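User: Hey, my collaborator sent me this sequence without any context and asked if I could get a structure. I don't really work with proteins. Can you help?
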Amino acid sequence: MMINWKKAVGITAAAAMLIPMAACGGNDNNSNGGASSSAPAETQSVNLSVWSPQEDADWLKDMEAAFEKAHPEYKVTWKNSVVSEGDAAKTVQTDPSAAADVFMFANDQLGTLQEANAIAPVNDTVAAQVKEQNDQTIVDSVTGTDGKIYGVPYTGNTYFMFYNKSKFTEDDVKSLDTMLSKGKVSYQLQNSWYIPAFYLGAGMTMFGENGNDAKAGIKFENADAVSKYLVDLVANPNFTNDDGTAGLSNLTSGAVDAYFSGSWDAAKVKEGLGDNYGAAAMPTFKADGKDYQMKSLAGSKAVAFNPNAKSPEAASAFAAFLGSTEAQKKHWEMRQIIPTDKTLTDLEGMKEDPAVAAQQKTLAETSVVQPTIAAMNAWWTPAETFGKSLVSKETNADNYKEKTQAFIDSVEKDVAAQSAE
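Assistant: No problem. I've predicted the 3D structure and written it out in structure-token form, which is a compact way to encode the shape of the chain:
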């Protein structure tokens, strides 16, 4: 993977450097995707295949037209296909060499994409763009175990809280226990992406400080206290477990007053709650007499290019273009996709949308970067199994310590197995 990229850069370094650097300032030409100040001596005909979600079809066409204008050195024939960010790695694995030249992906798939030789590290100039545009959490989300950056982020991928402002005040939503005393709260406790928020808040670590040390494993802290809290949470009449299908509708119908999800649900929540639409970062909870800050897993959605691309320099330039300041601005205007670019804080409607502030605070203060290494696969099944046992009350006040230890043992066993592969 890196060999192919280095060859491409060595051959076409000048072309590969023509990427959008809007976040770094500069003249008007650079602010719209790194356009050359003068027409190129030659025009290169290239074919670029691109994967994106169906919802991004119009935005993508607009960006392709803008890229052609900004990069007259390329005459591009486009081939667009529908593949969502969440399905990128799975689709790539069927045949990496036939995968799209440029694709959008959720960062938790980074390890899988690397193993499939389907994603290339960005060059130094694009890396500078990524670092200039984003907070460190987002940069870390697309950084591989080799320290190289893979992909250009364009939106965060994490969860926070939506709530009904007629039920809770801004002070109420700082504490989950306060909320449960005043209204009904929904949470996906059986979902292995959501349940770690409690254990991470109480000190659990996943694969070291940066989430990329497989040998460090997953280390639990205060696990018994957290499990006891969750047992009591399930027993609380003001708690509703969200099975992953009804949480949003329960919030908008008034069956519950708070619901944990991400920016992808913001427009529907706003439509359903109207003036009572509220959003906030993760709250605290009290377990065994101590206050802990819930911490969600956090990542990003990003654009990458395939090292198998026949025109890697053009693919690299377009991937960087789709993550540029101007492209993120257009993404917000067309679909309300919250940008990661730190300069885009004053776009029309952003300050008025509480989900924007909630996501930004979550990414900066109440989250942990989701590990992208293969060993993370050891977490998902044991965590889901344990969450389901809590919801069914198979894990209860009488046996939570034994069940928690069995959960920990299962995770450690799977981590060891993953690390040995």
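In plain terms: The first helix runs from residue 2 to 16. You can pass these tokens on to your collaborator as they are.
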